[in-house]
User: Fold these one by one.
Assistant:
Number 1:
Amino acid sequence: MAERLATSESGEIQEIRTAVRQLCGRYGEDYWLALDRNNDYPTAFVRELTQSGFLTVLIPEEYGGAGLGVAEAAVVMEEVCRSGAHAGACHAQMYVMGSVLRHGNDEQKRRYLPKIASGELRLQSFGVTEPTTGTDTTSLKTVARRDGDDYVINGQKVWISRIQHSDLMVLLARTTPKEQVARKTEGLSAFIVDVKAAEGNGLEIRPIESMINHHSCELFFDELRIPRENLLGEEGAGFKVILDGMNAERVLIAAECVGDGRYFIDKATAYAKERIVFDRPIGQNQGVQFPIARCYAEVEAAALMVEKAARLFDAGEPCGAEANIAKMLASEASWRAGDVCMQTHGGFAFAKEYHIERKFRETRLYQIAPISTNLILSFIGEHVLGMPRSF
Ligand SMILES: Cc1cc2nc3c(=O)[nH]c(=O)nc-3n(C[C@H](O)[C@H](O)[C@H](O)COP(=O)(O)OP(=O)(O)OC[C@H]3O[C@@H](n4cnc5c(N)ncnc54)[C@H](O)[C@@H]3O)c2cc1C
């Protein structure tokens, strides 16, 4: 392998990289290909990642986790993706947990976090997106009505991933109509939903057939009752609960894209060296070599922004701009690296046994979810550069 850029990583981060790489090595690409073919869930992989403590690195030690930061968690996700795995099957456990940690009351933290750390409870699901309002989150129409000691939920969600492989979901719903609040971000509330108790009792779950194996579903709420004690944070302040988790989500997903990008570059480089056409390695042609080299430069640059955003997050500093920029740059860099990897492999890129087409489909998601590129550009234009609001 070619000499890599010098690293300033701590010994601890390098140890995490090595250990996650070894764990992922036990689940080769054929494991992921078989799951993708059958739309199956990587239960064994997720269990091992949890029990080894890597999926729960962000949970404080007092609740049974490792008490590390987003910088370390990002390295876990990056290595998972770099191994050829699909981190989308399990990444939400890391950042959704953060909403409980930062906004849950003591009782909620004691009740849920140790069991999430041990793997007894899975918090893999995050219910925000709705079919009729999409990115316009504050216009969402799912409502939570107070009734005695319960909230009663009615409405609909779409693209809610992993819910069939999760015991808990953090749900965002409106508790005060948008017309009655001073700011549209007010009047939304977050709830912890016990998925197993809810299904069939006011919650209907319908899987969506989709381009990647992401286990996403439509949800229908019809008078679902959830106890008042499952309110997460203050009533009406749910947008903040969700937003806090979103910065961590963006950094972790950006790290996954860096992992995907490095995966594609490793594959493209190896193939460019070994594939002989016209009696020489295809990588001897600069038309093949330069696109790979450019992708390498782009992925490394994006990785620096991921590191910066993670550092700020862990220091408790504002990091909305950095987290968004990291996600945008890394998702575009990984997509371009995927495209170049496809091109380098010629026709063989289309053969499933080469695994590239699967990773190519998987990495495409991140320019759309959890937030699309246009919305990030709009955030930078308005909130960082102070240009006029467009919506
Ligand atoms: C596989 C998958 C898994 C997902 N998992 C989850 C999950 O677990 N939980 C969850 O809550 N959601 C989930 N989502 C939803 C995801 O977060 C949304 O799809 C994403 O935020 C975009 O919203 P939308 O699809 O409604 O697009 P829309 O809001 O309809 O936007 C469509 C396009 O128009 C552009 N656009 C919209 N408004 C503007 C504007 N004002 N200016 C410029 N461009 C604009 C957008 O950038 C986008 O490209 C998932 C989605 C997918 C595909």
Number 2:
Amino acid sequence: MPVPIFGHRFGRSGVSDTVTIPERSGVAFTLSSGQTLTVIDPKGMQVADLLAFNARDMDEVISSGRTLDYAETIRLTTGHSLYSNRSNILLEIVEDSVGLHDFLLTPCSRETFVHFYPDLPQHRGCFGNLAAALEPYGVLPDRIPVAFNCFMNVPVDGATGKLRVEPPVSKAGDRIVFRAAMDLVIGLTACSAPASNGGSFKPIAYRVD
Ligand SMILES: [Zn+2]
């Protein structure tokens, strides 16, 4: 399948107006080196899962393990970089009005719903939404890694290691801004899991500058 990456889709012409991702859905798009991606929580208390691939070699992909190793913290915010599986910087966080995000947990999926919400209607979740959005770029589902979960609130008990998923602390209009360090393919969702989003599903907005 041809991969619609290069040509006119790169360059400053890629600057966008603010785009809304409807609740429980996802998108994929290109982001040129040097451009910024602003992810906005328009209503508050809503998670957005973010993936990034090297647009020129899709085997290079965002890596939670590399990033947390180099950052020496799980609290990533302004000044931190998000690394690839090859230890290259894909994105730098240049602005962050929340300061509380997650890079431990994988995108919610149909199996997540079976595990945590057996009595609720099933949903393909962020995983299914990312897989569908990234399919035109040649990404198979098994290549989807841990996402950077913007605004997701996962407190860790430092003594026991116990994880919890709490409602995001983001308020309406809060944002996190990333600068691309190379040409990228981005996957981005409005998360579908009840616990991650304070029990209700809201849109996410983004813009490219
Ligand atoms: Zn999700």
